[in-house]
């Protein structure tokens, strides 16, 4: 299975506890998609084509995290962004 999300996309995700946790959602931009074991967000991750990891930069903090695909809730819609004045 190929990754469902791509580098450069802005997504909503749960950084801790999985998609069904009570953890608040975060919003961030995917800066890398890893489909093989390697280093991402300064951590060793066992990614694969079937279980990709996404390096996401948090929109509020600027910090990066390696996130499982199952923890990504969906794409952030343009309508939820602040309109330009």
TrEMBL record:
It holds the Pfam family Hva1_TUDOR. InterPro entries: Hva1_TUDOR (IPR021331). Residues 8-72 form the Hypervirulence associated protein TUDOR domain. Residues 1-26 are annotated as: Disordered. It comes from the Eukaryota. This is Hypervirulence associated protein TUDOR domain-containing protein. The lineage of its organism: Eukaryota, Fungi, Dikarya, Basidiomycota, Agaricomycotina.
